[in-house]
Amino acid sequence: MQLSVNGRRREVAYPDELLVWVLRDELGLTGTHYGCGIGACGSCTVLLDGQVARACLTPARAAAGREVTTVEGLAHGEQLHPVQRAFLENPLQCGWCLPGHLMSAAALLERTPNPTDAQIKEAAGVNLCRCGGYNAIRRAVARAAELKREDG
Amino acid sequence: MKPVTRRRVLIGLGSGAGLLVVGVPLALNAGRPAIVDYIEENGTGPQDAPRNPDLWFEVTPAGVTFFVPKIEMGQGIHTALAQIAAEELEVTPEQLTVRQADTARGYAGGTMFTFGSTSVKALYRPLREAAATLRELLREEAARQLGVPATRLTAAGGSFFVAGSRERIGYAQVVAGKQGEWVIPEATPALKARREFKRIGRAMPRTDFRDKVLGTATYGYDARLPGMLFGAVARPPRFGARLVSASAGAAGRQPGVVRVVIDAGAGFAGVVARTRTQARAALPSLDLRWEGGTTASSADLDAQIQAGSGSVLRRRGNVRAALSGGTVVQGEYRTPLAAHAHLEPLAALADVKAGGRIEVWASTQYPQMVIDDLRDVFGKDREVLVHPTQLGGGFGRKAGQHAALEAARLSAAVGKPVHVGWTREEDLQHAFYRPPTHHVLRGSVDPDGRLRGVEQFTAGGDIIWGQTGIPEFVRDALGFDPGGLLGQFMPYDFPAYRVVNRREALPVPTGYWRGLGVLPNTFALESFMDELAHAAGADPLAFRLQHLGSGEDGRRLRGVLERAAQAAGWGTPLPAGRARGVACCLDLGTASALVAEVSVQEGRVQVHRVTVAVDPGLVINPDGARLQAQGSVMMALSSALHEELTIQDGRVVESNFDRYRLLPMRDAPPVEVLLVESGDEPQGMGEPVMGPAAAAVANAVFTLTGERLRTLPLRPGQG
Fold first, then answer.
1. Which residues from chain B sit within 8 angstroms of residue A54, using beta carbons?
2. Is some CB atom of chain A closer than 8 A to the CB atom of B691?
3. What pLDDT is attached to residue A124?
4. Do A38 and B656 touch (CB under 8 A)?
5. Domain 2Fe-2S ferredoxin-type, which positions (chain A) (predicted)?
6. Under an 8 A CB cutoff, do A131 and B393 touch?
7. Interface pTM, i.e. ipTM
8. Looking at the predicted structure, is the pLDDT value of residue B373 above 50?
């Protein structure tokens, strides 16, 4: 089976396994993190056709025919995505939850370019941060919206 | 700690000209006398390339690289230490490349062990001395190359500038042009005074974060080698159960399985497969018989943890007399068993060469422990190389790290690298935990509102003893666990005080959890201080201030209390249905005070705003310190509002985050951090601020509802 990941066609040998393990262990895209396996922590959040999905609940096969975007696919070459730049300005601590927050925020800003604080909180949803960086996450997402508007 | 003297600096010239390596063995603990002996016997010099320094710098024509002995688990330690080094080295952050030391060249031992908020505190001086020594070596050589006196050279931005001229020479150029031997200065160069600091105390970008936003940072779970396989390991059905018989059963015939590895004597049964999913799926097909173990439940643990007797840790004045008068107050507090719940579960990759070197990439706070574990199994003389990776949280749990040993056992059996990454269920159900505690407090206040005395009984499960091989009779003779002492003593000035502490070995593994005793103890003591204040009819803030002593501790606590109270608007009106609570804490040299503003809605505590003032002596990186404080407050709130592990029939009931709830974004209040600097030496920053949040919230709930919540997690209306 083939998957389209970050704009590249990739051959997948274990299509019945969960997307999180196929991405990480088979395709070497370890930026998508495993945290719980039940969709309760958000560390494995990826985009499927631009919509947030938990890679720990999604069989790889279910992503066939859809565009999978992972944290490794956010930047365009050297040009970081606004959410990446915003989190560089507002770093978290360990960063294990970060790819999930980056992907959730990227999806949020696509549909809501000027999110309110309540919408930012809502979009973070189940995405946990055990290091307690929630204040920084709110600042970063708000800042990412600014940066994205500046980018045009 | 010994200063960095000539005899304690190692210098190496590497493989030819153009490389200068300066390394420093710190002798932070007694666990490494051989290296120190070696230096003292042999002296130093170019013939002694640094073999096992704790930290070292490499200067090449490409720049300066700083090898850091401490492990980055999000606390920003690489950044803070780089900042300290850059200060004396006179380089910009961009000119300093930071790399994690590994155990091949860095000494693992105590220095790499990253724990107890000790990293900055312990390395602050020796790191500056090492960096200054390196700078002076370069200065002498620069002077020689330029043909000017060294005193005419000013170091800045990785270059030396010649006074009164436009001439300059970069460090790299100095090293490239070096001929002959480097000569170490006889004395340690003078260190900068605080007023001269250009980098310490200012914001600096995190050294680890660009890789993290790109998704390319390597954590233990991410470690990869060509040809690697994946492993999974069978876990006992209850704590303490022994594997009495084991065979492969049908596991070897499951899809993708490469090898079943059984060492029943060691209680080990695991599977190696082509994918992680296959390895895990094959585990239930192993034919395993477990016996014994505990059948304890939470109620049994609570029954075992009973304050009321034990070792007398502090005694002043006559408590009996103090409690025989005035208004007597009694409070009994409990905190539950809790998990670390670091979001990256335990993970390691091991590559065991037959009869040869064992190489490990692991999420570990304690590389030496990994080495010891591996040598216990594979032989005392076995060469072991540990690469500490980035850690996706640690909080003490990754000080005990057996995934590396599991991966190594499996790798040895298949002759290929094997990765073992725990599931969340394994991580929550087969860990060690923050032990439950019980606190019984009695105190008395005079009619004029003065605290007469306090009698304090505490009991808790083992913390440090729970994770070390100290025999039970030694622990029993001592009577208390040193970890339980953090936050154990009321920092107030009053005539009579008696503290009695009791430790218990529980049938469930217990150990280090961020801050050790500081959260449970501060919850109990600062809640009780609030009860005393109300009994005295006093404002809780004023009552605390009134009972602080005139010494340094009292002065620093007063400073943070006043700062937090002012910023939080203590005493000013709040909207209906809200109240404030205050608590403070002095731990590991750092004073903190916290004001929480809460409401209670449908039996749930909502924290709307937190103001915390923190005095860690000297702040290295204000951004990092704020993140540490905010993170501590959030983790403490999570503990105060949600977290409790239940034991049933010798097992942990909560297997994942659907049952073991952590503070989510929607419940996370704004946390304002006010940094107070009252000293010239940095103190602990990773854990002390775990102390005050739980009590401040409980105190606010009391002010709001009149209900005193004495058990964590806080559940209004449920006792």
1. none
2. no
3. 87
4. yes
5. 1-74
6. yes
7. 0.98
8. yes
Alpha helices (H) along chain A: 19-21, 82-89, 98-111, 117-124, 134-151
Q: What distance, in Å, lies between the first and last C-alpha atoms of chain B?
A: 49
Chain A residues touching residue B403 (CB < 8 angstroms): none
Contacts of B635 in chain A (CB under 8 A): 130-132
Contacts of B74 in chain A (CB under 8 A): 92-95, 131
Q: How confident is the model at residue B19 (pLDDT cuts 50, 70, 90)?
A: low
| Candidates A17, A30, A131; nearest CB to B275 | A17
Judged against a pLDDT cut of 90, whether residue B108 lies above it is answered with no
> Are A37 and A93 members of one domain?
no
- Tell me the residues of chain B between 86 and 125 that have a Cβ less than 8 Å away from chain A: none
**Residue B59: C-alpha distances to residues B12, B13, B89, B145 (Å):** 11, 10, 11, 17
Of A19, A39, A73, which marks where a domain is finished? A73
In a shared domain, residues A58 and A91:
no
CATH number of the structural domain spanning residue A114 = 1.10.150.120
Residue A131 structural domain = 82-151
Q: Is B206 on the interface with A (CB under 8 A)?
A: yes
As a whole number of angstroms, the distance between CA B71 and CA B77 comes to 7
Min Cα separation A19/chain B (Å)? 11
CATH of the domain at A68: 3.10.20.30
SS (HEC) of B612-666: EEEECCCCCCHHHHHHHHHHHHHHHHHHHHCCCCCEECCEECCCCCCCCCCCCHH
Q: Write out pLDDT tens, residues A57-78.
A: 999 999 999 999 999 999 999 9
Helices (H), B253-402: 276-282, 298-304, 319-323, 367-378
Residues facing residue B19 across a β-bridge: none
Domain co-membership, A68 together with A88: no
Same domain, A66 and A89: no
- pLDDT of the residue at B310: 93
Report the gap between the CA of A44 and the closest CA in chain B (Å): 11
CB pairs under 8 A between A and B: 174
Scan residues 440-479 of B and list those with Cβ closer than 8 Å to A. none
Do A22 and A63 belong to one domain? yes
- Is residue A67 located within the same domain as residue A92? no
Q: How confident is the model at residue A152 (pLDDT cuts 50, 70, 90)?
A: confident
Indicate whether B52 pLDDT > 70: no
Please tell me the total count of domains within chain A: 2
Ordered domains of chain B (ranges, CATH): 6-212 (3.30.365.10), 220-292+346-421 (3.30.365.10), 305-338+433-705 (3.30.365.10)
Q: Do A142 and A100 lie in a common domain?
A: yes
Scanning B628-667 for CB atoms below 8 A from A yields 628, 630-635, 638, 656-658, 662-666
Domain boundary among A73, A104, A135: A73
